[in-house]
């Protein structure tokens, strides 16, 4: 059990600090200011001609496939441990779900942007759709 948790922690660190930066140009971390307040930072590298050569589409797909498949696999393990009454393994499985889910959440926030940007994009889109319906314009903008 200890070995699995140590390997999970190493995987979490490697995906968060190395793989995400190299394969897709995304990174996230926690910053604590002078007042002691915690701030989460989600960044994505700006696309440039040099970066497009280093970040390939195949590497990006492999990264996202692994990032999505691992939490799903750990959830399957959680249900398996729960329904087979193997409570001692449930703690390991919960750690796997939490660590893999945290990486998935962090990178989705990096890719899509902060919630404020999501909210403003959704509001803008809905506003455009409403305006298009009221004016009778069927052309997409």
From TrEMBL:
Give the way it sits in the membrane. Answer: Multi-pass membrane protein
Please report the name of this protein according to its UniProt entry.
Golgi apparatus membrane protein TVP23 homolog
InterPro entries per the record?
TVP23-like (IPR008564)
Q: Where in the cell is it found?
A: Membrane
In its UniProt entry, the species of origin is given as Vicugna pacos (Alpaca)
Which family does the entry's similarity section mention?
A: Belongs to the TVP23 family.
Give the range the annotation lists for the signal sequence: 1-20
Report the transmembrane regions from the record: 62-83, 89-108
- Whether Transmembrane counts among this entry's keywords is yes
Q: Which domain of life is it from?
A: Eukaryota
Keywords attached to this Swiss-Prot or TrEMBL record, sorted alphabetically, are: Membrane, Signal, Transmembrane, Transmembrane helix
Main location, first listed in the record:
membrane
Instruction: State whether keyword Signal applies.
Output: yes
């Amino acid at each position: 059990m200890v070995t699995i948790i140590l390997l999970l922690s190493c995987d979490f660190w490697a995906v968060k600090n190395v793989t995400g930066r190299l394969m897709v140009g995304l990174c996230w971390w926690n910053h604590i200011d002078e007042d002691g307040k915690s701030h989460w930072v989600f960044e994505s590298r700006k696309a440039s001609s040099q970066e497009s050569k280093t970040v390939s589409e195949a590497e990006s797909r492999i990264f996202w496939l692994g990032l999505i498949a691992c939490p799903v696999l750990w959830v399957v393990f959680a249900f398996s441990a729960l329904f087979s009454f193997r409570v001692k393994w449930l703690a390991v499985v919960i750690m796997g779900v939490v660590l893999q889910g945290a990486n998935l959440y962090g990178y989705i926030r990096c890719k899509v942007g902060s919630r404020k940007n999501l909210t403003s994009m959704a509001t803008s889109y809905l506003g455009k759709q409403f305006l298009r319906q009221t004016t009778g314009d069927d052309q997409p903008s």
